[in-house]
Design goal:
Blueprint (H helix, E strand, L loop, with lengths): L1 E3 L5 E3 L10 E4 L9 E4 L12 E3 L8 H68 L1
């Protein structure tokens, strides 16, 4: 089965192992970002046959396409790094907040223990004085 992709190039759509025309997809993984491939269209129904085939083999890509993919991959890496940096900043802020909360809790428990010790000492001291 033939069809035209977005670039106007006619592609031969293979059939997957289920016997139906494979679905054209674009990779979003870091190692193959932007590369086109065919896979089984039954992935939506958790009945995928495992069919997989690259459309644009790396060696067959022209120079312009390679540069475009490289730039897209750099952008993808930068976005991922920004996402990680934001998550680390959130974690550090939460950690700082929790450390402050822990200090307040520790101080309040310490005050309660000291207060209880003073009360016990006072009660025992009064029993000894009156006894």
């Amino acid at each position: 089965m033939q069809f035209d992709d977005d670039s106007g190039v006619s592609l031969e759509r293979p059939f997957c192992h289920c016997g139906i025309p494979a679905k054209l997809k674009i990779s979003a993984k870091d190692t193959s970002f932007g590369r086109r491939f065919f896979n089984c269209p039954n992935y939506k129904f958790n009945k995928q046959c495992g069919f997989f085939q690259w459309v644009d083999f790396e060696m067959e890509q022209n120079y312009c396409c390679k540069i475009t993919l490289e730039l897209a991959q750099r952008r993808n890496n930068r976005i991922n790094q920004e996402r990680v940096t934001a998550e680390v900043a959130k974690f550090r802020a939460m950690e700082k907040k929790c450390n402050g909360t822990f200090k307040v809790l520790f101080l309040s428990w310490f005050c309660i223990v000291v207060l209880c010790a003073v009360i016990v000492f006072y009660v025992n001291d009064n029993h000894v004085s009156h006894g």
